[in-house]
Amino acid sequence: MDAKQVVDLLYWRDVKTTGVVFGAGLLLLLSLTVCSIVSVCSYIGLALLSVTICFRIYKGILQAIQKSDEGHPFKQYLDHEVALPEDMVHKYSDLALAKINKTIGDLRRLFLVEDLVDSIKFAVLMWILTYVGSLFNGLTLIILALVGAFSCPIVYEKHQAQIDHYLALVNNQVKDIVGKVQAKVPGMKRKAE
């Protein structure tokens, strides 16, 4: 799936496909709030297996009644190769490794206070996340992220002018406040880049 397909999915270009993906994802996450991941995976596997076994038996009975020899109903899928291409695995594992190494470097920089302003911002973020963590568990945040990912882009697309206007106002206010704080606290001025 390339970036254009993801954008089309999030902007609801094909309502049927997006609805299926969004609904399946939301159903899976809501199922995880009730049952453990092992139970959810087992139930999904059992449901899929029940459908395929029933279909295979149904086709076998039809072949016996009609005295036809169509063969296995899933033959085309059984003959199809299902393996991950080695070059694709290397490509994505290299990308993941680069991101992990960059994250480790950034965390080292933040925790060892290379830049005081960035470390204080990180501390404030961690402090805010303690309150978020006390209100929501991780699964609830993932559900909210999924709903946001499928609703925010379309809302932004329809109301872009108003949203951009108010975001610019908020951004200017934040810059003013940060500038005032940096001017009053010694050692908080950012280095020239």
TrEMBL record:
Stretches assigned to the Reticulon domain: 6-193
Record membrane topology: Multi-pass membrane protein
GO cellular component: endoplasmic reticulum membrane; neuron projection; postsynaptic density
Compartment(s) where it occurs, according to its Swiss-Prot or TrEMBL record: Endoplasmic reticulum membrane
InterPro entries: Reticulon, RTN1-4
One BP term from GO: endoplasmic reticulum tubular network formation
Keywords: Endoplasmic reticulum, Membrane, Transmembrane, Transmembrane helix
PROSITE patterns associated with the record: RETICULON
Keyword Endoplasmic reticulum: yes
Superkingdom in the source lineage: Eukaryota
Principal location: endoplasmic reticulum
Protein name: Reticulon
Organism: Perca flavescens (American yellow perch)
